[in-house]
Amino acid sequence: MVTRVDQWREASARRRRRAERANHRLDVQGLRAVAVLGVFAHFLTGWPRGGFVGIDIFFVIAGFFVTESLLRTAADTGSPSLRTFYVGRVRRILPAATAVLILTVAATALVMPDDLRDVGVDALFAFFFVANWHFAASGVDAASAAESASPLLHYWPLAVEEQFFIVWPVLILGITAIAVRKAWTDERWRAHLAVAVGVVVIASLAWAAVQTASSPSWAYFDTFARVWELGVGALLALAVGTLSRIPDPIRPILSWTGLTLIGAAFVLVDGGSGFPVPWALLPVAGAALVIAAGVGREPELQGFLRNRVSTYLGDISFALYLVHWPVIVLLAAVMDRSVFYYASVVTLAFGLALAVHHFVENPARDATVQGLRQAREDRRHGLHHTELSTKIAGVAALILITFSVISYAMSPEAIDDPAPIAPTAPSP
Questions:
Q1: Owning domain of residue 300
Q2: Structurally, how many domains does the chain consist of?
Q3: How many CB atoms within 10 Å of residue 24?
Q4: Distance separating alpha carbons of residues 137 and 131, to the nearest angstrom
Q5: Helix (H, G, I), strand (E, B) or coil at 211
Q6: Whether this model's pTM surpasses 0.85
Q7: Do 144 and 425 touch, CB atoms closer than 8 A?
């Protein structure tokens, strides 16, 4: 007789097989969920006190997947395509990031009009992916970042990533060109790349240590003080051949050990001294272990990361990250910190994240010229249809946003209209 446990195991196996065929890591999607929920909870409530290290987890993930994609393209075609890579990054990042920028500036004009000019300037720096240098030069203290109350402060990691990815493909292209000219084997090509990446990682880590000791606020936003975290992910991508041979019984041990390190970082790390070096080493090592454990084959006994809820939260993690901080700051300007405030923040943030993910991020990422032409023809002939998942997401987003509005309407502030308050200062 087939039990529910057997059905669950078979469904889980089918999801894993589909993900493997699509080169889609379910465990890493779950890791993204852990990262974004840690960031959201920390900035909203101050707990866990080290939840902000979710940003460091995102750096490792980005370094791994982007480098793996570049290496795969180089191996297939003899050279990474810079045009394809940069167009892909633009489609992946820019539409959703720009949409949230516009919404945030518009909302600021409504609820914080006195701050509109400053937020407009922040938006310009965020749009051109130099927000990290802007906030560093403005003297924003990472340990008390909310004193600036900029609803766009959270765009600094996107700036770090995109600055890194402007240079990174060029480095890989240069070494690949040498490899082709000298007829290197694949192993020798990867070895030279690993040496180059290793040098960058060591130099960046050393710089981060110096900057943390002398100017921790600047170090927090400094691109080169963060490059080592992306570089760790890149080293994992270069080692996939070796990592794919990890014995299956060891994989869940590595994965759970990585999660334990991340959990320890959530609890132990704070916004005081020693960040990003040495304390960022803890979440970076944890993320690296989780990623390494799933190379070639995802680990068994890892339902925490691979369940449907975790993987879906991972799917919307970018959109949720984009909207969480503006919602926290802007609602704090009109609401007291009561149960109504927290209910409004959570429901509005998730509602907006669903809308941004399904109606901006996904369509922009998947759009092609041929697809757009076909969609136009379908609409002309009345054949256009919306996928069920998109319909469900639209309804869910509407319900969550409506609930947030109701929570605000029921709050005393909606009647009493007290003076605006600043949100609790988050750690970095």
A1: 22-307
A2: 1
A3: 14
A4: 10
A5: helix
A6: yes
A7: yes
